[in-house]
Design a protein that fits this description.
- The complex is a heterodimer of chains A (633) and B (168).
- Chain A is mostly helical.
- Chain A has three domains: 197 residues, no CATH class; 277 residues, no CATH class; 46 residues.
- Helices cover 69% and strands 5% of the residues of chain A.
- Chain A is built from 24 helices and seven strands.
- In chain A, the strands form three sheets. Chain A has a three-stranded antiparallel sheet with strand order 3-4-5.
- Chain A is globular, with a radius of gyration of 26 Å.
- The relative contact order of chain A is 0.08.
- Chain B is an alpha/beta fold.
- Helices cover 40% and strands 17% of the residues of chain B.
- Chain B is built from six helices and seven strands, in the order ααβαβββαβαββα.
- In chain B, strands 2-1-3-5-7 form a five-stranded parallel sheet, with helices on both faces.
- The N and C termini of chain B lie far apart (63 Å).
- The relative contact order of chain B is 0.17.
- The chains are: A mainly alpha (633), B alpha/beta (168).
């Protein structure tokens, strides 16, 4: 049964990808079924932006569903929810009126909630996810209804025409509501708390889609709201988005660095990458608000490019984490180790994903992060010092983020796959079954294609963002696959970079071969300082790798250092056991969600005093209400 | 202030006299030999196989500013993987037999092994103890021996020169 469902999902995704690419290439169509839904009916329309996000959804869903055939073999629960989840995600970017959008959005949330809570013991993360996603939905609903009421229509096409006529306060209230709702789906700081709870709880193929694709639909909503429905907006909206992006990127990467659960680590890294996308979106909105359409287009190209890249490598990494979980039954970095020998395919795929997400050439993460940097550097064409300062902050934050991300993924890959196995489970790990490998290979090829096809992708995205930015980006394609930014400001050719790196790696090997190094080769064990006994307990652990970062950023992590030494009863000099723990404390839990949760708890306690449960009392309430209405009426 | 100045001027030069001219000559010849055999420099890994650290003090003296062996192209390195030469001190204690073998294995060929000190030569005053297996040559092949308890820096330089010259 599960094979049939996931096989159908693969085929459906391929069809949807074809439709999406058609839309991306400029095909437009609309489909209206007034009787299907109240308040405006069911209406979907295809444009380039919708086509881009549909392609993103479908292109990620196809390999992930292929992977799920083997990963989720024999599953009985959650199959329908999976199909509904895919369908809703495909529908969201096509929705042409508020009703269709909200129904698809809610269906997406409900289906993913069912999937998060599928496994036993996941009710707490599932409820946390439900609360956060519905708080976000409430914001989107309020914003859309407010805008719809003022505009007198629920069709998106009408909003754009009406928006400039609305007064500034209404527009700002609508934007803030929509932005909060979409940002909570995208996982921006401080609305990110559901990601590290929901992603580890969901089955890995669902995490791949939630993290790779679903959060991007939050970005999609923000693009529509900020650059289409409510355009032109004041510059402070844009600045807020840019700062939220910087904060998300930094906070996300800092948590990624110290996390010891592989899937939670990837969830925090999603927050970081959404932050990078939001930096691009925010920069685009700033340029747009300041009337620099071409630069806005450049920043949006960078943002969409990074969104696509993140979908590819994050799906790949979650599939890799799923294979590790499948093989060892653990998500803990400290229980893994030595998997590179036991799971070479998974290790190679995870390594490729790590290189890509760390923004190292010659893979796709490097291209989009480079483009984001170029877009931010263009701020010197803005004649406003306060905005230039903002961009300087964004540049510094992005640079720090990219550097720390590299360290975080050296740690994630190294501790999980290298050295000796740290547990029985890791020692007995086995390679993933063939379809899981196929899913990982397909996403890995996607990462490579997104890097090498930079010239085509950039021209495609330029057409997508043109209606949003109002101008074409200053990007030119030149010989040797070179992309030129800002008429000679900067240029990059991924094919040349790739060939140069391959040559640089191959040159020493060839030189050694020519010098006859093979003749006197002698193989001996790795140098371990002459140690006689080398066990996994002597290895670098996830905690020890993160320790220097914890110390440097201790104002952020606020680690609790607990050392507990248990001595022998006879003498305190004979130590029986030493336990060490250094948990970090979340500033968001302590300073934001904790107080809010406590306040809600107190308010409900107060409200309970009038809810005694006696029928007589409720009759008295009715009487009092009646009297009050009669008197006031 | 004036008193301080007078004291400083009155103290004269308190640093030791430079090493004797024959040490200098030895170093120059060593540098020539290294250049001839190894191109530029000789990387030395020092292994303490159970020494009393007397030999280590003298080897440490070689790297100090007085003798400054780096100017002759000699370097003490941190891993046998980087080394051309092993400088092994002390009688080989039972616990150090296997690590010493592994160190020797981990050093790339071609390599020079020099046993330093009387203990390294044959176990010295510790020979016959239940805790030691004997000199360095009882565990790994040795190319040259620098005797002394401990050998002076000058003797170390002479021994290195001798070891380089002996090896064909």
């Amino acid at each position: 049964m599960s094979t049939l469902v996931y096989g159908f999902a693969v085929l459906g995704s391929l069809v949807a990808a074809a439709v999406g690419i058609h839309g991306l290439a400029g095909g437009t169509w609309t489909l209206v079924a007034p009787g299907l839904l109240p308040l405006g009916g069911f209406a979907i329309a295809m444009d380039r932006l919708g086509g881009f996000f549909l392609t993103l959804v479908a292109a990620a869903a196809a390999p992930v569903s292929l992977y799920a055939i083997d990963y989720d073999r024999g599953a009985r629960r959650g199959l329908l929810a999976y199909l509904a989840f895919l369908g809703a995600m495909a529908l969201v970017p096509l929705a042409a009126n508020a009703m269709t959008f909200l129904v698809a959005w809610e269906l997406m949330s409900l289906a993913s909630w069912l999937l998060v809570g599928r496994e036993p013991g996941t009710s707490r993360p599932a409820w946390a996810y439900a609360v956060m996603t519905h708080a976000g939905f409430a914001c989107v609903l309020a914003g859309m209804l407010l805008l719809g009421a003022r505009a007198g229509s629920l069709a998106f096409a009408d909003w754009r025409a009406v928006a400039p006529a609305l007064d500034g306060t209404t527009r700002s209230v609508v934007f803030v509501l929509l932005a909060l709702g979409f940002a909570s789906k995208a996982g921006a700081i401080p609305l990110h708390v559901w990601l590290p709870l929901a992603h580890p709880a969901a089955p890995s193929h669902v995490s791949a889609l939630m993290s790779g694709v679903m959060v991007k639909l939050g970005v999609y909503g923000l693009l529509r709201a900020g650059l289409e429905w409510l355009v032109p907006g004041p510059v402070w909206w844009a600045a807020a988005v840019l700062l939220a992006g910087v904060a998300s990127a930094l906070v996300g990467v800092l948590y990624t660095l110290v996390e010891r659960d592989l899937k939670r680590l990837l969830a925090f890294s999603t927050i970081e990458n959404v932050g990078i996308v939001l930096i691009g979106v925010g920069a685009g909105m700033v340029f747009r608000a300041e009337g620099l359409g071409a630069l806005a287009a450049l920043a949006l190209v960078a943002a969409l490019y990074h969104a696509a890249n993140h979908a590819a490598f994050k799906a790949l990494l979650f599939l890799g984490a799923g294979s590790v979980l499948h093989a060892t039954g653990t998500r803990s970095l400290d229980a893994c180790g030595g998997l590179v020998k036991r799971m070479p395919w998974t290790a190679a795929a995870f390594l490729l994903g790590s290189v890509a997400i760390a923004g190292l050439p010659p893979l796709n993460g490097f291209v989009s992060e480079w483009l984001t940097f170029q877009a931010l550097l263009q701020n010197l064409r803005l004649p406003r010092p306060e905005l230039n300062l903002l961009f300087a902050v964004a540049l510094a934050g992005l640079a720090l983020t990219v550097g720390l991300a590299a360290a975080a993924f050296v740690r994630a890959f190294g501790i999980t796959f290298l050295a000796l196995p740290r547990s029985e489970a890791a020692a007995g790990a086995h390679e993933a079954p063939p379809l899981m490998r196929a899913g990982m290979v397909a996403t890995a090829l996607g990462c490579v294609a997104l890097a090498l096809g930079v010239t085509w992708i950039v021209s495609g995205l330029a057409a997508v963002v043109e209606p949003l930015a109002g101008a074409a980006p200053p990007l030119a394609v030149q010989a040797w696959g070179t992309v030129d930014v800002g008429q000679g400001f900067a240029a990059l050719s991924m094919p040349v970079v790739g060939v140069a790196l391959a040559l640089a790696l191959a040159a020493p090997l060839v030189a050694l071969r020519l010098a006859g190094a093979r003749r006197d080769r002698r193989t001996y064990e790795t140098w371990g300082c002459g140690r006689m006994l080398q066990t996994a307990r002597m290895e670098y652990t996830a905690a020890s790798f993160a320790s220097p970062f914890k110390r440097v950023f201790d104002f952020f992590y606020r680690p609790d250092r607990r050392v507990d030494v248990r001595a022998h009863a006879e003498s305190r000099f004979f130590v029986e056991a030493t336990t060490y723990a250094s948990p970090t404390r979340s500033i968001f839990d302590d300073w934001l969600y904790g107080p809010v949760g406590r306040a809600i708890g107190q308010a409900t306690t107060v409200a309970r005093t009038i809810q005694s449960g006696h029928p007589n009392l409720y009759l008295a309430y009715i009487l009092a209400a009646l009297v009050a209405m009669l008197v006031l009426g | 202030m004036l008193r301080q100045l007078r004291a400083a001027l009155g103290a004269g030069i308190v640093t030791e006299a430079p090493p004797a001219p024959e040490v200098e000559a030895l170093g120059v010849r060593l540098a020539e030999e290294i250049r001839r055999r190894f191109g530029r420099s000789l990387a030395i890994r020092q292994v303490d196989a159970g020494s009393c650290n007397g030999c280590e003090l003298e080897i440490g003296g070689l790297t100090g500013p007085h003798y400054d062996l780096e100017r002759f192209g000699l370097h003490i390195v941190a891993s046998p993987r980087h080394a051309d030469c092993l400088l092994v001190t002390g009688p080989v204690t039972r616990n150090m037999v296997e690590p010493l073998r592994r160190t020797w294995q981990a050093t790339p060929d071609p390599k020079i092994v020099i046993a330093v000190g009387d203990c390294g030569r044959d176990g010295g005053i510790f020979a016959g103890s239940y805790a030691v297996v004997g000199g360095v040559a009882d565990v790994i092949p040795v190319d040259a021996v620098i005797p002394g308890c401990p050998p002076s820096p000058r003797a170390l330089l002479a021994g290195l020169l001798d070891a380089l010259g002996r090896r064909r």
